Fold Purine nucleoside phosphorylase.
Amino acid sequence: MIFHSRTLSRFPNLKIAFSTKQFGNLSFQHPLINKKITRKNRTKFYSSLKIPSRQVVNISLNHKNKILWVSRKKMGKGSLAQSALTSFYDGLITNEKNIYLMITTADCFPVFYFDPKKECVGLAHAGWRGILAGINRQMVAIFQKKAGSNPKDIKVFIGPGLQRCHFEVKKAVFDRFGRSFENNASFVKKNRLFVDLSQTIKIQLINEGIRPANIEKSDLCTYCENDLLSSYRRDKERYSAQGAIIGLFD
């Protein structure tokens, strides 16, 4: 099973997907799972999407805010081999056709971007560190600088991740989000501290000029959906990372 965005799936030349547990681990950065198994899982995932592995570009994640502009010479990098991963980035963007951008997540949010006017796509790995570092603000800035996008034209899908019901944090992190988002995404429940990461992403995007109506949020929680999704916080060392993909095709 693969999840799609209602908003972005309306565009016939845009491919977008987020894998489920049935595909197994898709991250070459997993400390325990054999790389041959991951390669096999990825091959199955690409095949289900009818995407050639040579057209996929994947990156080595760093939980920060660096974004890679992807040209045709990057095609195939990191697709089926850990040694080919481009380090260290947490986002990709391209205006080239038939290039598929890929990240992996296990609680962090995949954020899919598409400007239909400039035919440009982007994909961000947004965990709490990346959000505070401004990964989503940086993505919008690159859309403007490299593709000439107007933020009002960009459509965004915030995929499944660790939702507010399970993102409990320590006071230091709670306070940082409180200062950065004026307490609009942090709350206290039964003396425990929580942050709504999906909401912080939306706030950042709106502040960068993206229309609220152009932002779709998945309500699926990686922790809650035990049958469908893996969660690092829930599964610990037994987690398996999901894969997110976006790309335009002829």
